[in-house]
User: What shape does this take?
Amino acid sequence: MTKVLRTIAELRAWRNALPSGSKVGLVPTMGALHAGHISLMDLAKTHCDTVIASIFVNPLQFGPQEDLARYPRPIEKDIALLEASGVDALFLPEPTEVYPSDNSTFVVEEAVSLPLCGALRPGHFRGVATVVLKLFNLTQPHFAFFGQKDAQQCAVIERMVRDLNVPVEIVRGAIVREADGLAMSSRNVYLDPAQRAAAPLLYQSLLAAFEAYKAGERDAAKLEALGRATLAHEPSIAIQYWEVRDRSSLAPLQTVGNDGCLIALAAFLGSTRLIDNVLL
Ligand code: AMP
Assistant: This one.
């Protein structure tokens, strides 16, 4: 049985009752769970004795024009999926439980959170870092699991953990994709049939660059031009960014060196914003 914990008091009491030697893993999510999330639960089980998932659609990481209100919240289905995957507990708080009405303390990472999604979604990573540190303080995990799907989020959390000496080991899980290559996302349900049919092109644009890289291309501008050209003839896809970056600092690159790179993109299909990436 997955124990559903809705308040901080319940969570703390449950956490404190765990055996002291128990290795605890946390998988933070916003719910609307899919196989990508479940792969993180499975990964957590291989590292930990006890797995806690959280489902919290964190208002602090959504901009005023973003999809906070319409974000899918199929909570009964989510709980059934967590049960089936053997997760021990689910932290499922209301926003008022997480943030006091006069909350005035935030976590701001000031380097890797600046480019890419950070530049386009002001305040997003401040919201992410703040809620993740709170979840770490509440659940006191030994390990926490994050998807490579959100590569910049992983980089921000890893930097926060290093800089603030947070005693949690961060583990990244691989991107889980649909059969046609589209990265699984809770936001894919927003796509209409035509957009859904076009969406796999996003991954194909990354693969086009990957193929060129395998054939020896190291010029970042050429890889970018190639990827962007793959999407140029699809009118339903509006690229926000499509970039070749240093895999840890996320700084722009002119030439891909021996330690490879991250290629990351964000694009709108109608009003739906999707992200994807590959590590070369
Ligand atoms: P979210 O509910 O979108 O906040 O995602 C919760 C966690 O699941 C994050 O660490 C994501 O990176 C991860 N995640 C989301 N989609 C995928 C995917 N397709 N493959 C692997 N992990 C994912």
